[in-house]
Each structure stands twice: as C-alpha cells, then as structure tokens.
C-alpha cells in the first residue's frame, strides 16, 4: 500500500472534519453513524480524524446518510453563476476586460487553439 503524502493527509483530515461537522449537525453520535454505515466506531473515528482515507463508495454512503452532497464533504464549492471560480479566473477576466477589442479577439483565438 502506498504511503500517503503530507498533502494527502491534510486533505483527508479536512474531509474527516467536514464529516464530523455534518454528523454533529444531524445530531448523530459516532456510534449511530457507524452503525448505519456498518463500520466500527473506531473506523468512523479514524475517518473523521483523517487517519484513514474514505473510499469513494464510503464517501457516497456517508454523504447520503448525512443528507449532504459529496462535494460538500470534499470541500468543493461551486462558484455562483456568473462568478469566477478562483482568484486566478477573476484576474484573467479583469485583465481581459482591460484589453482593446482587437487584442481580446487575438487572445480568444489563442485560447481556442490551446483548448483543441
């Protein structure tokens, strides 16, 4: 089994913390959620502390039982419609708007070629 990197451990800890928060919001104990997931309380505790990684199927089961989207547990937040998804995207849009029309068209042609 491959050893997890520091970045992966931090990611798993963040996911686990979101699972624990969602569980608490539903007013469920670790014992109750563990029983519904058919895992031991120790295993659930290790998930919530990020000591072990949730499998994709377990992530979906947890999300379903807690009535939250898997994206919420993963910490993926979609930007509202019309809003940039990141600071980088916002900067690109702002810089693009500052360009004259001819340069904007040139940039669009380059982007289209890059995305082919």
Tell me about this structure.
With 116 residues, the chain is an all-alpha fold. The protein folds into 2 domains: 6-74, lambda repressor-like DNA-binding domains (434 Repressor (Amino-terminal Domain)), CATH 1.10.260; 79-116, no CATH class. It contains 7 helices and no strands. The protein is elongated, with a radius of gyration of 21 Å.
User: What is the helical fraction, as a range of percent?
Assistant: 55-70%
Strand content: under 5%
Q: Span between N and C termini?
A: 37 Å
| Structural class computed from helices and strand pairing | mainly alpha
Shape: elongated
How is the CATH topology of the largest domain named?
A: 434 Repressor (Amino-terminal Domain)
Mean pLDDT rating = 90
Q: Please, how many helices?
A: 7
CATH architecture descriptor of the largest domain: Orthogonal Bundle
For the record, the count of structural domains works out to 2
List low-confidence stretches. Answer: none
Radius of gyration: 21 Å
* CATH homologous superfamily caption of the largest domain: lambda repressor-like DNA-binding domains
Broad CATH class of the largest domain: Mainly Alpha
Count of extended strands = 0
- The string of secondary-structure elements, in order, is HHHHHHH
């Amino acid at each position: 089994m491959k050893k997890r990197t520091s970045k992966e451990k931090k990611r798993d800890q963040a996911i686990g913390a979101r699972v624990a928060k969602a569980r608490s919001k539903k007013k469920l104990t670790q014992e109750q959620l563990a029983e519904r997931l058919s895992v031991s309380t120790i295993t659930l505790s290790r998930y919530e502390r990020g000591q072990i990684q949730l499998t994709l199927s377990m992530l979906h089961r947890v999300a379903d039982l807690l009535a939250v989207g898997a994206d919420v547990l993963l910490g993926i937040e979609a930007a509202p419609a019309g809003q940039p998804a990141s600071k980088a995207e916002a900067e690109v849009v702002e810089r693009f708007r500052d360009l004259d029309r001819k340069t904007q068209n040139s940039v669009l042609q380059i982007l289209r070629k890059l995305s082919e």
